[in-house]
């Protein structure tokens, strides 16, 4: 009897449960959601895991037309239904099947459990849509808290981050974005938040506008898209700080710390200005050298260089006891301690000077040719170095009819001292290189250029069988292409040539003097005694002049235009190493000559009959290299490790 009562009670319970579920689904069909919820709730109070009641409760709460709509709560029941779907009773299956049959808008033949799965997927999709579209951050956090195992949990996390970021975007503060990055370091919006941080921090740094603010930004945000702009602004702020201080140390520190700054050129200009003013104020060679060493280019370099050249000129006159009221100016040129030698000069039609010399840094370095252009007062206009790989040596400077500058000499093809070949190069009047030409293995000593820009090159061609050379004269066009050559009988070398206005060529050979017509035929010639050799020649309207020396004497000679000897003076040497260096006409009947001694030099002025009128003695380690005349004003070019030029007045004789 007891067992019958228990069975009867169970049947009553099961029947009541089924009745509640059936009633609930009937309420759903009628869209009586509150009644459906009440029915399912009663069932769930009896059996919390009942899949049928959980499924019905999920549907009741998931419909947005329901008065009891709560999609978030709905998922709790939907999840339970999914987990226990296999425990559905046959009664529940029949009840739910009838529900689907009566409520489906479009009938399907799917099994009931498959239809339940589809319905639960719809609830899940509705929940995600609700979370995404409602913009309800509290609802998002509720889902994350209640459903950590939710299949779309990561998606909800992403939605949460998106909503949170929108909140901080509305705030739009630097602190807000930093807080977002701190709270949500894995959010998809991190890059965007960082960009906002970069931008707002950039604006803040610009407001502050100090080097430290910009440096702090650079250290903190090295990946910012504004970093290059910040670096530029930092550099500008640093340069402005330097300008405020306005000292050499401040500018040099700026240059050292910010070598890539756009203001580097301006900073160097400021340093140049301050060094320039300092050098002018101190007025010492050390100050000039310091400036020139640091800033070897530009207008201020030229100004300082000229101040230094003027001081060196005064020092030269003092050191060598050169004193004369007829000296117009003297200049000394030293390129930052390099050793200069062999200076040669030419004077333009405007009275400007082109000087070229050999220059080397030290005894172990190769020499180059240093070309300088000076104005009438000896102030440098420009300077230029020209050279090939090994040693280079200057012999002459010539000017063509256009004012272009032709420099001639030797260049060495290797470190072997015997590898030298003839060499010419041409510069424009403003110092631009036009061409460079090697002339081959010949001994070349003399150069001249005519009005047609033909270049005459004199020297000798070696006779290999005899080991001595024949007199040689070659002609090149203005592009350094050889157009003619002439070899003369007799052994020796041409040491100097000079052209007159008719294109006739005066030749000073080893011991052979001659004049050639413009076709290079001999008009007249003369031979010196074998103990003498002629080194230099010059002409004026009154005749032709030669100088040279032997073992025991120095000579000066004048020949008339018809080739007859006007006078010939030979002087005993006062120094075993005394040599003649140059001779140049300084008037219609007068010449100036230069002689070199062991330790010093002489400049002599010879009158109409070759008599010595005046002598300037220069004592000391100085080498006279060249003489030049412009409007009767004599210029003397010498070297003593520096390049020296002394200009004498045109209306005086020394």
Short account of what is shown:
The chain is an alpha+beta fold and 654 residues long. 38% of the residues lie in helices and 32% in strands.
CATH arch. level architecture of the domain at 2-133: Alpha Horseshoe
Rg, nearest Å: 53 Å
Oligomer kind: single chain
Strand order of the largest sheet: 1-28-27-26
What structural class is derived from the secondary structure elements?
alpha+beta
Structure description:
With 654 residues, the chain is an alpha+beta fold. Among the domains are: 2-133, Alpha Horseshoe (Serine Threonine Protein Phosphatase 5, Tetratricopeptide repeat); 538-654. It has 16 helices and 28 strands. The strands form seven sheets. The chain has a four-stranded antiparallel sheet. A four-stranded antiparallel sheet has the order 2-3-4-5, with helices on one face. α1 (2-29) packs parallel to α5. The longest helix has 28 residues, at 2-29. The protein starts with a helix and ends in a 6-residue tail after the last strand.
Produce the secondary structure layout.
Layout: H1 2-29, H2 33-46, H3 51-62, H4 71-83, H5 90-103, H6 112-133, H7 137-146, H8 153-171, H9 174-183, H10 190-208, H11 211-220, H12 227-245, H13 248-257, H14 264-282, H15 285-294, H16 299-319, E1 327-333, E2 339-347, E3 353-360, E4 368-374, E5 380-386, E6 392-399, E7 405-412, E8 420-427, E9 433-440, E10 443-449, E11 455-463, E12 468-476, E13 482-491, E14 494-499, E15 505-509, E16 512-516, E17 522-527, E18 532-540, E19 543-550, E20 553-559, E21 565-572, E22 579-585, E23 591-597, E24 600-606, E25 612-619, E26 623-630, E27 633-639, E28 643-648
Antiparallel strand pairs: 1-28, 2-3, 3-4, 4-5, 6-7, 7-8, 8-9, 10-11, 11-12, 12-13, 14-15, 15-16, 16-17, 18-19, 19-20, 20-21, 22-23, 23-24, 24-25, 26-27, 27-28
Helix pairs in contact: 1-2, 1-3, 1-5, 2-3, 3-4, 3-6, 4-6, 7-8, 9-10, 11-12, 13-14, 14-15, 14-16, 15-16
